[in-house]
Amino acid sequence: MQDLNLSKFHSFFIYNSTFSKSEETETDKIIFYYPETTTLKEQLQNVGLIEALTAYSLSFSNKKCNSLHLEKNRYVFFEPEKDYWLVLIISNPFTYKMKGNEKIQKFKFNLLSDQTLLQILKNSYRIFYMFYQTFNDLVQKNSVLYLKSILAQFFPFYLSNIDFSYSSIENTVWTALDGIQFCSVHKNLYLRIKCLMNQVKSNFPYVKNSMLLFEKNLVWSSFETEETRNLYHFMCSQVLGQYKSTKSKEFGKEKPTVKLENKESTVFSYQNLILGIQNLVADIKEEHFLTGATLIENKVVIKIPTIFVSESNTQKYQLIIYKSRNLFLLLFLENEAPNLNEISFYQKLSTLIRKEMQSICELLNNGQDEDEKIDQVFNYIYFNSINLSVKQCLNEKRNFSLTDVIPQLVAVSDELLRKKSQIPDEIDNPKTQYLRFIIEREIPFEIISQSKKSVWIVGKKTSNHVFFLIFDQKNVNLNSIEEEMEKFSSALFKDYFFD
């Protein structure tokens, strides 16, 4: 098989057409473009293409389109706020094919998933909102120039650390599902965790919400589901993610300044915050605060970020993160809560939670052995849309290569996940009527695909669940597939306890 050149990041930009009043001010509509070395002519061409496409699509439906497939590139675009568009361009993967003595590129544009790329855009906006609120808020409270400076500070760092290669399950199907990986917890341990959270709130009344993660698994959250997903994604992709950048020497120092209309304004540095936290995660293996009273260059420095957990919850929180080995406790306090700048506050909090956190971490570590028994039997991905639970296992003893499986998984998942969004408003077409009938009544449907290496992939979607089960046994038939699905369901849901 010819070597596949993986997909690559091409460009990303944000524009607002209302900022341009005439042809002379056409460049004003571009409020951010990355990489910044892109020529102004190419920037305007790409913005104009998306403007024309979204306007033209309204001739056929009241929903604007969100992707464009070309031979060399894939465009996806998303409007998080009125008139503000985020656009991502990805270079399609390709192989080389010999035609006579000439080497020709053959693009594999069907290996990319709109759902995955759109989710990347949505996630980037969620994280931005957590620390800066909406684009329009920044413009109304400051200016367009201020918004541009914030975007220029946030997005280059954020984008440069996303893997666009489509080389793993995590950056394909996992991203598209946009779920939460829960930690299976015995009910007695769950009650013990809940008791600890209540103790914290009782002793520190300014703590309004809490969240507990074991590695990249959610153990506890007092937030609503959507808010929990935002915070979970932030922790897993940012705090616990693997950034290309090395240690940040700037963390703990003065915030950077930008010049705005002949004035200097101090701005929050997202990059310094994330790299600073990651340095602490990597360097300190035992108990320590990651935000709050943190240890920087052998000195205690109090740094508390302010965040907004979701667009539906406009309350401002101050975030304290405490790490105990591979257990992470997030505490969300009222904005401007008293005593947060005093070391005694953190000493008292640490005394209350340290031993119990150590004990809970030990019990959770022991509990992972039971989960591995299920994971040794099946190769699967599972998603529950009610609580956003997502779980996967591709065990080490599998008889197939991920390189062979990922294209089929991408195709199957994209087909399952895009069904609902693709139904047009017009229902005159009999085929459309039938598809709408299936979706609205949540009738289960499944897709079965076989790779060139004889690996079978079954994608099944019911009212609230999505399954992907991978079979690498030879001579598999439809009856044996159904039997394996039943065995899988019984094994996965046995003895699980969720609140």
Automatic annotation (TrEMBL):
The organism's place on the tree of life at top rank: Eukaryota
PANTHER family: VACUOLAR FUSION PROTEIN CCZ1 HOMOLOG-RELATED
Ranges where the CCZ1/INTU/HSP4 first Longin domain occurs: 10-133
Coiled coil: none
Annotated ranges, domain CCZ1/INTU/HPS4 third Longin: 376-487
Protein's GO biological process: vesicle-mediated transport
Residues in CCZ1/INTU second Longin domain copies: 207-337
Family: Belongs to the CCZ1 family.
GO cellular component: a single term: Mon1-Ccz1 complex
Name of the molecule in the record: Vacuolar fusion protein ccz1
